[in-house]
Target: Microsomal dipeptidase-like Zn-dependent dipeptidase
Amino acid sequence: MADLQDDLHPATEVGRADEPVPPYPQEAVVVAPESYEPVSDPDDDPMTRARAVLAAHPVADGYSGLPWTLRRLPWYDLDLGDSAVDADLPRLRQGRVGAVFWSLHLPEGPGGDRALAATLEQLDLAKAVVADHDAGLRPARTIGEIADARNRGRVAVLFGPAGAAALGDSLSVLRALYALGLRALTLTDVSWAGPAGLTRFGEEVVREMNRLGMIADLSHASTPTIGRVLTVSKAPVLFSRSAARALRPHPANLPDDLLTEVGRARGLCMVPLTAEQAGPTVRDVADHLDHIRALAGRECVGLSGTYDTGSAHPQELGDTSRYPRLVAELLRRGWDDSDVGLLTWGNVQRVLRGVDFTAHAVQQRRPPSTATIADLDR
Model:
């Protein structure tokens, strides 16, 4: 815990709730797909073309439960491959995964002080795993570090999302977790972001996340919370595991009106490759991607493998090596290479750039917040 205190920012006054912050300019954050020469004719086998597209636009996977899975294994070997996990290095390479968010969620759901300790234990384990497999993995906190990892032939690992309970209702802990490498926080299961929406303290948490450059994850959040975060946040948000409720009535999936709002806010809905949320076949997953692209727009849809979470996966998508099968199905449906490039890589990069740009802008206008839940939610 001494490290936490050392990393805390000095406290100053709370910024005004109505303080205007300029929106991030589109030209600063939109990442065009990288140019490349197709290695196969469009009329060739879709799997061949899928691999060619993924070579230029690898997958940025929005959610992996690997840290929690490894925590329960007595022994594993990610370098050579391990049947106990879905995402060892050979299969990540075969699936053309270039970046992945490692979840620090706690399936057992500890609360209070234990939530912070358990989250720190998860983060410590995740960092150790990356360090032990530095020939294939590389930690990344910024868009530049993601690019560096890719240039070195490594998979970039971003730490998060974590559960909001880890904060213990403290903005100082939020800053400490950010300094330790956390990059995404799920705004659920706390008093200030619950079924009734954000409280005043919850709004202050979002503003402080904007100032730091931490991504707000709204999967599993209540509809009032989602609506208020979309209004308060000056940075783009993401839904780390949400598909279309019109196609699959799962509580974490989004109804059409919210998908439209996500598009207006230029957020990112990342479709989970789980049978429970997306359906039992690769075609069902593609249906969700078609539906969300039509409602939210081509720049607001992404992929979440949700591997190593204990969830059942659709046919043909059993592990991270199977991403080319999904891309091939999209190509059969008429998706062009640029749309696939946005889906797999470009849209995540846009969100990361938008969050980073917003943080730089807000830091010029707003000092670290000293607000407490007792101050704002009396």
Notes: The longest strand covers residues 59-64. The chain has 16 helices and twelve strands. The chain has one domain: 51-376.
